[in-house]
Each structure stands twice: as structure tokens, then as C-alpha cells.
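REVIEWER CHECKLIST
Item 1: Sequence provided? yes
Item 2: Single chain? yes
Item 3: Sequence as submitted:
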Amino acid sequence: MKILFLNLPYKFNISRASRWPEKTKAGTLYYPYWLAYGAGVCEKKGIDTKLIDCITKGYSTEDTLNEISNYGPDYIMAEITTPTCFYDFDTINTIKNKNPNIKIIIGGTHATILAEEVLNQCEGIDYIVRQEYDFTIPEIIFTENNFGNSDDKGNISNIKGLSYRFNENNIQNTSENINENKNNKLNINKTNNPNINKPNINNPNINKTNKPNINNNGNINEENHNKIIIHNPDRIPLDNLDELPFVSKVYQKFLNVDDYAYAFAQKPMIQIVSARGCPNKCNFCSYPSTMGGRLFRTRSTNDLVDEIEYILTEMHEIKEIFIEDDTFTVNNERVIDFCEEIINRNLNPVWSCNTRVDLPFEVMSKMKQAGCRLLVTGYESGSQKVLDEIKKGITLQQSLDFSKNTKKLGIKVFGCFMIGLKGDNLDTINETFEFAKKVYPDMCFFQQAVPFPGTEFYDWVKNEGYLITEDYSKWLNNDGYLNCLVNYPYASSEEIEKIRDNLMSKYYFSFTYIFKTFLSNLDWIEFKRVVRGGYAYISFRIKKLLK
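Item 4: Structure as written out by the authors:
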């Protein structure tokens, strides 16, 4: 059996694995790390596996079809996102029409939270693997092909976290589980999965398609029209993350590390994961609401540091390691253990991570000793009222202390701010900008709040009538950037976009910022990084002004 993991082609260099899937304004491009972990698990289980990133290769759909033909897989695994889903559907249907015997498996945030809708909208999809899918995929392969091993579940109805179509004419002649599953509700947040806290999907677990599926040739697909949609119960989240392979080895085998970049990281960089799940309750964040959930689970310190040691010894070209957890610093004791292991092994890596502003100084200091170069944090707002509304769980004073401590230790900060959050108005948005000047991160990001399905923020803007459209084909503009999708009582979507761009310009093009950035990045490696990111962002702004 062969499986091909595909980061599907798109019109722009877009990061489907990002929490903000769009063409970035400063040259950032994520590794397809969810796909890479899945590919690593399949390889580990002896399945003939290949991973292709069609984005970095600049592939068209035709190029992708040629790769599929050359490899000849039995299965294809890909991810879709909300902003790219309709383009992805066209690609998937084209692949299916050319290769009707290949089973197509789809995962990711959008497919997880809207599994029924996606199966109704895209006839080319055979299976949706909801939430973390690393071990769901080999179970599909081994079960369908009757391998008789521990991953062979006997029938696909026994595979947790799976959604699929089933011929209703055969419903009486199949396993008990399918009959049970068809009577359940697909409710990502209320089944046997303890890691997510709020129901987002109200569709019934069984749904006879009441509209004909139209294929790319305009013909009705009667086979799918006569099928019902089944949602198996959720998969219990993987507790022992040491079972996952070193994703760095997957990158090394299948990808070119020079193709990926963070605007704030030294290049080439690499993304790895040390934990999954985020216990924090931010109401706008899609990953805890869809993929990793709220249950925090970790790799052991030794396993994590072993991978870092592998990268340092076997991938000499890597300049920086980014730990891509939702929040790396959830457990302070674990972070200190990690840092001490790094120090004890004399490894000297350069690394960065996502964190929160409530990080204690002593933990931050230990991180600096262990090679931490930069912290990415969400300040979000300069209004305590807004922070409380969005359930951020931090105070403005903690943000000020965080800023002071990072400057004292010489750790760089990428600070994220959002406008148009619940509780925002023109005054609080101005407070946010003034607060940004107080904490003064080395790099700064002002972004409009985006209502991703599955989040409380999405529910709020929809219920209030602020959401402009539920047509996901309109989420990205013609240049590949996320549109402002919310009209507020105090500002239209167009006004929010202008405010956002104005805040970015005022911050980055001020004499104070330019002068301080120059002085703090005299090191040649840092200087090159700043020039690379600055050039990309200035090019974006000039292009926008010339429109």
C-alpha cells in the first residue's frame, strides 16, 4: 500500500498549517507539519509513504497530477483550510476524476469542525479525519486492506475520529457500529473527547444528501447522492507524544528546509512540536477549538532534547529551531527541566517558541541560558476590558512586566495585537496602539480578528449579525490576504482594514522604531533577517498603495 501526503497547490504561497492561513506580508511560510507528522507515523508503521509540498514547488494542478501518476499511490492525504477550501475542493475533485481508484483523505481545522458540510460540498473526498489524525490514517489503510494487525479495526465503523459516506441501501447489512454511529450527533466538543470545551457542530450524525453532487464535468454523481454521511465517535487525544516520530527526519527526507521561513526567525529555520493542546480559553483561537483541543499533553524532556540534538548534529544548515506548540510554557517546571537538559548536554541551540505574558522571570532567565532567542506572545489588546471579554486570562501589568523582563535578559519579542475583538471600539483600538508603544516589541503584528468556524468569536459575530459572509471563497482577496470579514457598529470591514494598515505603518515606519531596530540588530545574521523581512513588508505596502 502507498500513501501520498500532499500540501495541495494554491495560487499563492500560503501556510495551511498556520493559525492565520493567508499569504503573509513579510515572507513567512510554514512547514506542513501536521502532514509531516502523519507521514512519519505511516512510515514508522511500514507503509510506503511520500510527502510533497506543492506550494514550495510552485506546482499547478497539472503538475500535481503528474506527481500522483509517477508515484501511483493507493491513498492521498491532504489538509484544507477555511480560506482555501473551495479552491481545494476543485483540486481534490480534479484529482479524483483523474484517479477514481485512489482514496482521498482530508483533515485540518476546517474539515474537523465542518465535516458534514465538507463531505456534502466535495464529492472527491472519501474520508475526513477529524482533529489529530496521525494514527487514524494507518488504521484506515490497514482496516480497508485486512492486514490483521493491531491497526486493523475490522471495519471502518470502528475507527475513531472518522467521517465518511455510506450507501444507505446496505445499512441493514453492515456492522452494529455503523447503525449506532448514524444515530449519534456529530458534536466535536461533547463526545468522548475531553479536550475541547464547547459544542460547535449541531448537524445530525447521519444526513442523507438532499442535493445531487455535481462533478467537474457537470454530471450528477448518483453514487454519492444515494449515500448517507456517518460520523464515528471522536478519537481520544494521543497522550504519549513520544510515540510520534522526529518530524525533523521527515522534513530531511522529503522537504527542502530552505523553502520555509519565519520573518522573525533566522533562516533556515525548522518547526517542531513538543506538546499538543492548550488549556487557555482565548475565544478567537481556532486550534484548541478544532485540532489540538484544551487537554495539554507533552513529549518527555529526553525525547524533545534528543530531537534538538539530532537537528544540531545532522542538520547543520538549520540556524533556528521554533517550537510550534500553541503555548510552550504552559508548565513552568517542564520548561525548566527542558532548559537544564539542554545546558547539561552542552548543546547550545538557537530556539524560539510561543508563550504568554504571564511567564515568570526566573523561567524566562533559564530559557535565555538554554539558547532562547525570541518569544512570540499575544498581547492582543491594550484594554483590560477587552482582554477579559476574550478570556485571555492576562493583565496589562503582566504584559508590561513581560516586556521589561525580556529587555533585561536580551530576548527578542514578536508581539501580536488584534483589533475588532469582542468588547473593542475605536477608543480601545487606540488604547491598543498606545499600549504597543509602551511594551515596544522588536517585531509587531496588528491583525483584524478573524471569525474562524468553531471559535466562540465566530459564534458571537454571527449571532450579532456582524459577519459579512459565510461564503468562504470570499475570505481571501485577490492577492491572497485575509479580508476583514466583520462589520461592527463602530466601524465597517473596510474601515477596520484601513485602521489595521495605518497602525502597522505608524509602528514600523516611525523614526524611533527604525533607529532602535538598527541599533539592536547590528549582528550580521540578525541584520540580514531584518532586511529580508523589511523588504518583504515594504514591497507589500507599496503594492497596496499603487492599487
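Item 5: Key structural point noted by reviewer: Residues 188-220 have pLDDT under 50 and may be disordered.
Item 6: Recommendation: ____
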